[in-house]
Amino acid sequence: MLVSYKWLNEYLDLSTVTPKELADKMSVTGIEVEGIDVPEEGLKKIVVGEVVACEPHPDSDHLSICQVNIGDEVTQIVCGAPNVKSGIKAIVALPGSRITGNVKIKKGKMRGQVSNGMICSLQELGYSDSVIPKEYAEGIYYLPADAIAGEPVFPYLDMDDHLIELSITPNRADALSMRGVAYEVGAIYRQTPHFPAFDLKEADTAASSKIKVTVTDEADTPAYQIRIIEHVTIAPSPQWLQNRLMNEGIRPINNVVDVTNYILLLFGQPLHAFDYQKLNSQEILVRRGKDAETLVTLDGESRTVSNDDIVITNGQVPVALAGVMGGLDAEITGTTTTVALEAALFDPLAIRLTSKKFNLRSESSARFEKGINQATVAAACDAAAAMIAELAGGEVLKDAVEGSKVTIEPVTVSITLERINRYLGTTIDAAEVEEIFAALGFDTTISGETYQVSVPPRRWDISIEADIIEEVARIYGYDRLPSTLPSGETVAGRLTREQLLTRSIRTILEGSGVSEAISYALTTEEKAQQFTFTDSHVTRLDWPMTEDRAVLRLNLIAGLLDDLAYNLARKNSNVALYEIGRVFKQTGDSKKELPTEVNHLSIAVTGNVHNKDWQSEAQKVDFYHVKGMLENLFAQLGLRTRITYIPTDSLKEMHPGRTALILLDEEVIGFVGQIHPTTAKGYEVTETYAAELDLDQLLKETSEQTVYQTVSKYPAVNRDIALLLSEQVDNQSVVAAIRAAAGRFLQDVRLFDVYQGKNIEAGKKSLAYSLTFVNPEATLTEEEINQSMTKITKNLEETLQAEVR
Question: Which residues form the FDX-ACB domain (predicted)?
Answer without folding.
Answer: 712-805
